[in-house]
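Technical appendix A lists one of the benchmark inputs used to test multi-chain prediction within the project. The record comprises two sequence entries:
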Amino acid sequence: MQALAASFFLQMAVILAACRIVGWLARRIGQPQVVGEMIAGVLLGPSLLGLLFPETGARLFTTETRGMLYIGSQLGVGLYMFLVGMEFRTGLFRERARSAASVSVAGMVAPFALGALLAPWLIKVPGLFAESTRLHEAALFLGAAIAITAFPMLARIIHERGLAGTPLGTLALAAGAIDDAAAWCVLAVVLASFGGDSGIAITAIGGGVLYAAFMLTLGRKGLACLGRVTLRDGRVTPAMMAVILMLFCLSAWFTDHIGIHAVFGGFILGIAMPRGPLTAGLTEKLESFTVVFLLPMFFTFSGLNTRLDVMLDPSILLIAVVVLIASTLGKGVACWAAARLHGEDNRTSLAVGALMNSRGLMELIIINIGLQMGIIGRELFAILVVMAIVTTLMATPVFEWVYGRHVRKGAPQPVNGIDG
Amino acid sequence: MQALAASFFLQMAVILAACRIVGWLARRIGQPQVVGEMIAGVLLGPSLLGLLFPETGARLFTTETRGMLYIGSQLGVGLYMFLVGMEFRTGLFRERARSAASVSVAGMVAPFALGALLAPWLIKVPGLFAESTRLHEAALFLGAAIAITAFPMLARIIHERGLAGTPLGTLALAAGAIDDAAAWCVLAVVLASFGGDSGIAITAIGGGVLYAAFMLTLGRKGLACLGRVTLRDGRVTPAMMAVILMLFCLSAWFTDHIGIHAVFGGFILGIAMPRGPLTAGLTEKLESFTVVFLLPMFFTFSGLNTRLDVMLDPSILLIAVVVLIASTLGKGVACWAAARLHGEDNRTSLAVGALMNSRGLMELIIINIGLQMGIIGRELFAILVVMAIVTTLMATPVFEWVYGRHVRKGAPQPVNGIDG
């Protein structure tokens, strides 16, 4: 077993180095850290390291250490979604309800319409979807993959630019939050219905709905008590930390067990948490290790599954281009149009479209679930990885060009954490 | 793979619950949390859960999830030793050099003398040591196992009672630090020489000495730069966190790779770190997750290897009693006598002896390494687990009785983190 520990530590050193180096390069050209880490993960996989130095790649990422990488990834994205859930403010919607409603509806309807349009074509291409995937599942999955937004990245950009109280800030935050929540719900339905056994689907959908309902009512009340205890103690004690992490594990286990995914458990628990010293303390104590140590494991695990060489096939490359255009139309352009129609000025509308179009880490989480559950194949996975990276790369320059340079109050703040 | 994630989350929820419940019970009777968690780990293993509900135990801790538990444990104890290293103050020794020297020499000479006395007897009992363990290795390993001190627990008790500047505080901290460092060195030598191949031994000893020398000179200077960067930034940035975690992984990998153990890599790196905002920030960001989430994995992994039913054999039970007495004589009594001989009053000397005699988590780390490297067998492992738990259980009441109640300034502060 000691050899296992040694290779784990070596592997982690390489992963952390790769993520930091590529992340640093990304920040040098004005991109957020998350883009760098997404690319670093792909580079560590069969698309570069495995292609150039197959032996090194195989020695570094053995079958055994891949299991560790998988568990570390699941823990990482689960905790990350828990942290994201704690930052979610449902009150945002009310503040700017009508614009937000039209932008978020556009950001949902257009992606699912495009998903429905593309699915009949793509499902016939061998290797994109699993044999057992049915047309409506393919359409819904594609729709969710197009509809997802890099909500945490969007929130970070808005806070860093001091836009949190502005029309743009409120609009983008509210619409992004609603669309993300909707996309996760649709994904949960797809996961629940996948496999065809109606008993499994009922457990998953019914269990998921009941669990969410329970957590957001009684669960929220129970958690509020923990919030009061923290207020009294003046800090998050080790005992409180243990209770929260235990609840997190139970929540992740439950949603995994009923057939949706651990990320939902983390996310719902995060939303149900009482805002205040407890959430602030938990973020302080969990965010750094999650983002700096665990998420790079996820990027690498995802990258090990990404074979960019499938793009050498012209028909796959064509599909990739179509998917990329459809994603940008279905999200960025649709949200811009909805904001314009609702009377927002062109600059604000373009900025909203650019922010909503970036998908970041959230897209990787969704498509990794799709791959792991056997809904999509490696070709479509690679296509959607490229879509995720390109739409995330586009966001910052477009935002800077149409909006950022007009409102910036000093030097641009490079985004340093993971915000995808 | 998804089933693997689900069982990991379930397993962690059970582990965290067990550690907190038994830890809470321990604190109710005035014991530190670490004793509770040590016992919780044993209860989750074949000594209780596996005995009463073998099927539940086997379903909860499968071969596959045991691998995860192992890696999580290694990461946990590695990071913990890194945190302990950062708390180490070599300057302590100078402040009270002569008493500290005699106590620490007594706390080293007596254990190794007893180890040398016991080894010829114990090595003949089948199952205690591996067949390939030689007499001097057995003696040194036993000596180190008796000599180790729960340094972090000792430090926490002294700080919480406000004894940090007192003769007792300085004396116990200095002597504990020296003895622990010495015991780890001896263990490194045992690990290095074990296996018999002199090439391996030379790599391990030479590599370890060179690495420690490098880290404590040039390495310390390099790390001091990182300390200055943190001072300038005003906080530990994600990039800094990533660099430190990468250095930690490299250090753990290197010491694992040359044949000593990952904990040394963590510990040496911790000692070499510049004290200040960097170490304070790292402790803030790493301690909670390490202590609350990762260390319980270690206690459980250790507990899964502990078969207390070997004590049903009267000859094993006799050995356990002898080892327990020898450990208390060789550490607690020897340190008390040294302090007395050096002119400390009886109360201070008894308190020093009680604190030095507790072994806590440190003992579990040493004996798990011994088991994993094949130096000791399951019977001696179980005996030393019992010795670790009993000597740690003894420390607080003895300390309270001879010293604590005379100096306590208010209600006793229950020790809430892990300090063993």
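Chain A has one domain: 2-407. Residues 198-233 of chain A form the longest helix (36 residues). Comparable benchmark entries are summarised in Table A2.
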